[in-house]
Amino acid sequence: MSDETVKYLLPENRIPKSWYNIVADLPQMPEPVLHPGTKQPVGPADLEPLFPMAIIEQEVATERDIEIPEPVRDVYKQWRPAPLYRARRLEKALGTTAKIFYKYEGVSPSGSHKPNTSVAQAFYNKEAGIKKLTTETGAGQWGCSLAFAASLFGLEVDVYMVKVSYGQKPYRRALMETYGARCVASPSTETNAGRKILEEDPENRGSLGIAISEAVELAAQRDDTKYALGSVLNHVLLHQTVIGIEAMEQMEMADADADVVIGCAGGGSNFGGIAFPYIGRNLREGKNTRIVAVEPAACPTLTRGTFAYDFGDTAQLTPLTKMHTLGASFMPPGFHAGGLRYHGMSPLVSHCKELGLMDAVSYNQVECFSAAVQFAQAEGIVPAPESSHAVKAAIAEALDAKEKGEERTILFCLSGHGHFDMQAYTDFFEGKLEDKTYDEALLQEALSKLPNVG
């Protein structure tokens, strides 16, 4: 490769043949998932109302490599391997001594990393004879991705979209409907969970926890229907590791190795996708690549939350997982990075944080949008509001290297484009975008309601 190469591309035959399971390399096993009633570890039968057995087996798998089915790899060919870019123009604009690389997941049909798992989940559900899927979505990236995947495998989809995002992002809703899904603003009157919340607060703007409650409630009622989740759980992060596996090979093509790996984090899926292969390499080979998760200051799960057992949803229908949490009843303010408005963090990401295998930082939304605009003007790609957090952290790293006169190689995941999020950019340019802050008293109240696990 020449010294001025900008993008590093792999051929389709280099799509990974296996996903990477970080559990195989962890020095200490994560805590088990508990049944909400008995507080005992859940078994496959407890999860069968929600997931097909193939997904349940991946959720509890301990082997390092899990084969990607050929039908899934065939669909991946539509956009994988995704490109790795060297951000040469951004480096020049910053005047930094650092090298900045980004793995761009916005080349997928729905515009984000989410199809890496939605295609796999749709495939396994189809194989199990399932006819319909229910799910939640925040900003709409996951809803669009599951709708896309379901259309390929002939499945119906009901998407419960957080109401604040349902209003902010009508084009995401239109994309879901184009793929054939039904999109409902959450909380809705279609479920017991939704009706109860609306009775207490008719103006409720929704949250991912509420939307999960609605989707889970409906999935559990029908044998031909299962639930699909776009983040948080082990099998979801497993499917996303194609990001980091490809990135490692592409960094070798660039004759570079990352000193720091960065990803935005809401539930943890794109972060785990880029970071877990590097954390695993650190553990196996004794390398010291620094891993950084970036979250919104208005919903700071890793940097402010408590590491404890909690429900994944507001109505307390899900099993209990040990994770960094702000409390299942915590209601984050309505900031624009809807995909990061979740009260909990992936148990595996949380576990890695507790083991000291990674760091976490948080930023306010205005500074993230400023970084996104700077990135767009240099690199030409408009980041999704969620991805702007990783952009902000990467720029901060590059400027820190510049200040210290250090050479530093930075790799971050640009998890999606912002083409359906332009209202947020319009608000930013018009000075309407405000840094939202959570209510400390409400946070303490939510944390006081954490379930008592002996």
Automatic annotation (TrEMBL):
DNA-binding listed as a keyword: no
Pathway(s) this gene product operates in, as recorded in its UniProt entry: Amino-acid biosynthesis; L-tryptophan biosynthesis; L-tryptophan from chorismate: step 5/5
InterPro entries: Trp_synth_b-like, Trp_synth_b_CS, Trp_synth_beta/beta-like, TrpB-like_PALP, TrpB-like_PALP_sf
Residue ranges of every copy of the Tryptophan synthase beta chain-like PALP domain listed in the record: 78-416
Source species: Candidatus Terasakiella magnetica
Stated role: The beta subunit is responsible for the synthesis of L-tryptophan from indole and L-serine.
One of the record's GO molecular function terms: pyridoxal phosphate binding
Modified residues (N6-(pyridoxal phosphate)lysine): K114
Family to which this protein belongs: Belongs to the TrpB family.
Subunit structure: Tetramer of two alpha and two beta chains.
GO cellular component: cytoplasm
PROSITE patterns attached to this UniProt entry: TRP_SYNTHASE_BETA (PS00168)
Upper lineage: Bacteria, Pseudomonadati, Pseudomonadota, Alphaproteobacteria, Rhodospirillales
Cofactor annotation: pyridoxal 5'-phosphate
Key word Amino-acid biosynthesis present: yes
Top-level taxon of origin: Bacteria
Gene3D superfamilies associated with the record: 3.40.50.1100
EC number(s) recorded for this UniProt protein: 4.2.1.20
Catalytic activity: (1S,2R)-1-C-(indol-3-yl)glycerol 3-phosphate + L-serine = D-glyceraldehyde 3-phosphate + L-tryptophan + H2O
Cleaved signal peptide residues: none
Keywords: Amino-acid biosynthesis, Aromatic amino acid biosynthesis, Lyase, Pyridoxal phosphate, Tryptophan biosynthesis
Official protein name in the record: Tryptophan synthase beta chain
